[in-house]
Structure formats: C-alpha cells, structure tokens
Amino acid sequence: MTTVQENTLSVAGAEAVSDSDAVSGPDAPARTGAWWRGAAIYQVYTRSFADSNGDGVGDLPGVRAKLPYLAALGIDALWFNPWYPSPMADAGYDIADYRDIEPSFGTLADADLLIAEAHDHGIRIIIDIVPNHCSDRHPWFLAALASEPGSAERSRFWFRPGRGEDGALPPNDWQSIFGGPAWTRVAAADGTPGEWYLHLFAPEQPDLNWTSEDVRAEFEDVLRFWFDRGADGIRIDSAALVTKDPDLPDLASHPSPHPYEDRDDVHEIYRAWRAVAESYGGDRALIGELWIPDAERFTRYFRPDELHSAFNFPYLCSAWDAACLRSVIDETLAIHAPVDAPATWVLSNHDVDRHVSRYGRADTSFGLDRREHGRPVDLDLGTRRARAAALLTFALPGAVYVYQGDELGLWEVEDIPSQLRQDPIWRRTGGADPGRDGCRVPLPWSGAQPPFGFSPDDAQAGPWLPQPALWSDLTVEAESGDPGSMLELYRAALRIRRREPGLGDGALTWMESGESVLDFVRDGRFRCVANLSSDAVVLPAHDGVLLQSTDLVDGLLPPDATVWLRIGG
Ligand code: GLC
To answer: Is residue 549 included in any domain, yes or no?
Structure first.
C-alpha cells in the first residue's frame, strides 16, 4: 500500500495541532454552496464549557477565551443552547427575556464580542430560540397571572377553566413531556383556585398561544434582534410542538390529527420566519429540532420557503449495527433529496446519553424514553466505536454536529448524587428517568483533578455538576499531542473534512464490501469503510490511507473501526 504523504494523518502518526494552527478563519478553504449545507457545527452548552469568573458556571468570556481551540478543531459554526436570562428551571429553556444574556453567562456586550471574534475566526454563530414556551417569570406570564380570565394578557397563553366539580380537574388529558399532567392551576384574584394553564414541559414553562398576533409579532422581532447582532442561524427548539388544536381536545379521543404535534398550521410560522431570514440576504439558516417519524411529514418542513435543515435523530438513536445504520442513512438521504435539503448527522447532544456510553452497552440503540442508567457499560468498547462512528459520520453527505466533549471522548456520568441532580426530568419522574445531567457535566480542560481547568485555580465554587476524577485522562491538555487520543482524531478528521472536495455536501455511492461493513465512495477519490462486523476485513484497493480510527492489523481493518482511503482517480 502506498501512503499519500500530503494527506496522511493516521492515528499513529497524527501531528499535534496547536491552538494557533487554526484551520478556520477567513483564509480557510472555501466550501461551495451555502455554508449550512456541509458545515461542521459544534454545540456549546455554555454552562459547562468554560468558567472565566470562578463561580462554577461556564460563561461567554470563557467561550471567547477558547475560540482559538475551537478554530483549531476545524469547525465552521457554533450552536449555543439558550443563553438568555432564565430562572433555570430547565437549564435555560425557560426564557425570561429573549433579548438579553443570562447574567451568570455574561452580558449582551459579551455576546456581541463573542459573535464578532468568532466571525474573525471564520466561525458562524447559531443561537437557540424557544417558541413553544417561555419562563413563568417572563413579563407576559406575570401579566397574565395578574389579569382576569378572558383577558388579552391571558390569551397569549393557554388558560382554561378546569373540568369536574369546582374545576378541580385539568382541562384535558395531555401529559407533560417531563412527566405528570401538562396543566397547572393558578389562584384567582381572591385567592381561591382559578384557571389552569398548559405546559407541555415543566410548570415553569407555560406554552405560548400562537394564534395570538402578539406572539407571532414578538418572535419575528426577536429574530431580527439577533440577526441584527450578527447571528448566522437559529436552532428552533421543539419546532413541531408550537401550534395546538384550539379546542384542546383529549388526546385519547382525538389522536389524529394530533392536537399538538406536527400540526399543519405550524408551517405558516416558519414561512414567516424564513421571510425574515431572507430579508438578511439569504445566508441565515433556520434549523429545526424535529422528532417526526413520518418521512413525508418531515420533509414538509423543508419546502423552499421554510426551514433549511433539521437534526437527524433517527441516526443518533440507531444501534451500532451496520444494517440499522445503513437503513437510516439511506432513508435520510432519500427523504432529503427531493426537497434538496442537506442531511445532517448527529451522535450526541445535551438531551441524550453520550454515545461513548451508549455504544458500550449490550443494547446500543437509544430512545428518549429509554434513558436508563446503571446498565453495564464497556467504556473501552464504547470509545473504540465512538472513534469509528466519528469517521463514519464526518464522511457522510451533509452537515455534522459535534456536541462539546464528543471530541474528548467523554462518557455519560451516571453516578451524580441525587441531591446534586438538576434536570426537571429526574425530579418530575421521581428518579425513574435519570434525566440529562450526565451528559451536561463541565468539560475537563487541564490538570489532574477537578475542576480540570474548567474554572480558574482560585475559583470560589466548584463546577455546578461534579466531574469524575477519571476524566484526568480526558482533558484537552492530556489528549493534545497524543496520537491515540480522541481529540487528535477529531482534529485530523475535521481538517481533512474541510479540505476534501468530496466531503460535506454532496452524494455518496455505496460499495458492497460484505456483511456488516459500511463502505461508500464520495467524489474526489475518497472512500470510507466502517467495519461493524466481528472479524477483521480486507481493505479494498486504494492508493493510500488518509485516516483510521484504529490501527490496521496486517493491513486488515479490525472490528469496530473506520478508515478513510484515497482511491484511484
Ligand atoms: C428541547 C431541548 C431540551 C428542552 C426542551 C424544552 O427538546 O433540546 O433540552 O428541555 O426542548 O424546551
């Protein structure tokens, strides 16, 4: 086998990439087409990224300080989970003011600097907008509570009288996604029990009523506010839940059309949002958080005047199994092709168990209703598969998402003491669902013990969630320059992905390489082979190895490994 010197970045031979060796930046190789079609997007969970002021909570100055790290990683954009003022009943997804920054994260001036500096590095900024609900401390909800039933203030939400004697029962049978009923009763002006309000998530997250003109106008204005400040894209939270059947019927008796999921009238909202985005020159992207099993209904969101793309949750949930992954990949590409929307690929995010742990379990498939901790996890196996999954994912056509810490190989922290857990899911299900704290633990940057450089040395508070002592091997410092580390694999892979003309947006051609092997070719003499079988496999003819997730053994690709090959032109 000949090696392609110029492009070779094998695991064993990978060279350390220093922070100054940025591959982002204005001079980075240009991608053809719209940026969001093939971008590598890094998800920043601000609270857990980097703490600049020692209060144990990550913040925007902390992110600014790490921009060189992110640029060197080779990503194209950052997606920030909600960064607005919030009582944090749901980690910022309960927003009290859509036009400011959460004080523990910094100020609006910090956000402006961050956006400007990221742009200087050639990194785009995607922010998270939550249209389904706000915080129960939002001025609109406080005004609604202070107003009479039937008032204009209450009409921005879903207030209803209860059923049963004295209205003591919720208005319908809807259940909160976080557990328990989706309704909470408020007191009337005289202190007696009054109306109920709808909250599909926690009681602190009242659902907004999108039949209200105030609500529509307000969000279009919020979009303009952030586009004016330089945001390049919007991630739309719970995008398919936003509109409701105004009759609020029982779900049991009216399952179809669903009274609050993926309703036809939701599309007019995103058409209006697209018009706002287009008024900024056509480069601002709208990305939906859509969990919609029906392929045809999913694609409706990508009609030319609606959203640009969405997260690919079937891919994330797929078992580590060649047949399952192949069918998800095929279906994804088939769904997106007719509407010319780019596919996206995501392995982890702030709502799911980290994939190193998922892939180390006996059952590697995942579902939001199956977040079950305490099952045996083989971390070595999970890490090996996560490495293979990264190369498979980055070679697929479309855009990719990296959740902070994926690049370090962090695993799900399953042993957070109960009294420290913060996720409302854990609380509202009485602990039956462990919730999402385990994937939100602050990043380890350096040093041998917590806080691992997440906070400054003289910090007055520990990280808001405890970090495992074992993460001393997974810090950025420990992994930098280690050719066998996850970080160097990500750096190498993202660098190659940026410069390979065939990667990112485009098409793939499957090659048949035997059972349990995913083998495909991209334009530009690039071939990806992922071996999910239990035996080593012979590589197809090639001119050189660009990158491999595990060392080849006697020229064979071992199980749970992926290789990128240069093939003949
Ligand atoms: C989305 C977010 C999740 C949040 C929920 C309610 O699913 O990803 O973190 O709890 O919406 O806003």
So the answer is: no
